[in-house]
Amino acid sequence: MSPAPQSAPVRVACVQVTAGRDLYPNLERATTHIRAAHAAGARMIFLPENVSMMEGTSQAARAKAMPEEDHVALGTFRALARELDIWLHTGTLAVSVGNGMIANRTYMLDPEGAIRARYDKIHMFDVTLAGGERYCESATFQPGAQAVVVNTPFLPVGLSVCYDVRFPHLFRALAQAGAGLLTVPAAFTQTTGKAHWHVLLRARAIENGAYVVAPAQTGTHEDGRRTFGHSLIISPWGEILADAGPDEGFIVADIDPARVAEVRGQIASLKDDRPFTVSVV
């Protein structure tokens, strides 16, 4: 399915930060980059996973999580979207959902500051890497169960978070539902980022004929975790339009909604999907 093309390209931005444990310095840093990206012409701005807090323990993350209706970061970003007249993707925030659990939740805000969509990260990063590097998100977060596409004036946007990128069927479902832009806010580890970040994101773009916008955390955080950076904006043909490298800041690129329809017309894999069964013999 191809979204209806618009007449003009739109400038989008990814913000890249090294978030710490404390909410207010993180919000100040993110706000500075949002304002700079807006000054550079961005009308849609995307923030990384855990933009308001990078905590190293489940207990600390739970203690600092807030319910949606009282979330300081969400309120800050809603006001900023309204002030700057932009579409603002909040990265992810730690949102209390009861029973001692929190959601790793992302929001898409419109230029009036209204919440147009919510998405809770579905796939939990429970892994042990070579050398003993270990993560267990399911100890802290309650996984989501609903994929989300949000309509914008530019392209329908399919929402995902970080580890979701390793589950291509999710992105296929988003594209089949009309998404022409797929966003992947992340805090990818240095280890897995070096090996897989670029190739996974380019694959998701190519497979689905969609733009991929992937804002990321970068650097060494207060808890010692190291994230890969390299926020990316990728075309539907798999071309890297912008790469933030390892430093904090932002990147911009102009995306053309008509390019989605063009690529999907050349390689109509979404249309050519066929049902099948699997036999194990």
UniProtKB/TrEMBL annotation:
Keywords: Hydrolase. The keyword Hydrolase applies. Pfam families: CN_hydrolase. It comes from the Bacteria. Residues 10-257 form the CN hydrolase domain. The keyword Nucleotide-binding does not apply. One of its GO terms (molecular function) is hydrolase activity, acting on carbon-nitrogen (but not peptide) bonds, in linear amides. Belongs to the carbon-nitrogen hydrolase superfamily. NIT1/NIT2 family. This is Amidohydrolase. It comes from Pararhodospirillum oryzae.
